[in-house]
Amino acid sequence: xxxxxxxxxxxxxxxxxxxxxxxxxxxxxxxxxxxxxxxxxxxxxxxxxxxxxxxxxxxxxxxxxxxxxxxxxxxxxxxxxxxxxxxxxxxxxxxxxxxxxxxxxxxxxxxxxxxxxxxxxxxxxxxxxxxxxxxxxxxxxxxxxxxxxxxxxxxxxxxxxxxxxxxxxx
Length: 170
Fold this sequence. Notes:
Layout: E1 2-7, H1 9-18, E2 20-21, E3 25-28, H2 32-39, H3 47-67, E4 77-82, E5 88-90, E6 100-103, E7 107-108, E8 112-117, H4 123-137, H5 141-151, E9 156-159, H6 163-169
């Protein structure tokens, strides 16, 4: 199953240095809840759009991780990984994101298909969003506007073998 893991630049360093991330881990995927939500819209969504929605949910969760990791670069990070279906469990919390899942085992560097990371031009907007993301989660429209500014930046795509080089540049 393809999952999208929220991360920080320090999590990327751990992945490269140790070759794995140990579970349990929260991730995002095309879940029945996510599929049902988009099926209710007029246009619906195809598989690629649903994967993009899961990627964006992971990128938003990355803001929360950056908030508790002051040493991390102010760039959203999401990892696309392929893990066995048996390692993925839905999150049963009704307040959780529609695509949230738990990965019970570890995710190895070999399981990662790509990394998606903000460019340097996003850092000011990400820094501002990190400061208010929890307020946005609680319904503040002003905070949501700030988060939307950060989410307006497209994430750059990096192949697994490029992650080490990327980290050297940060």
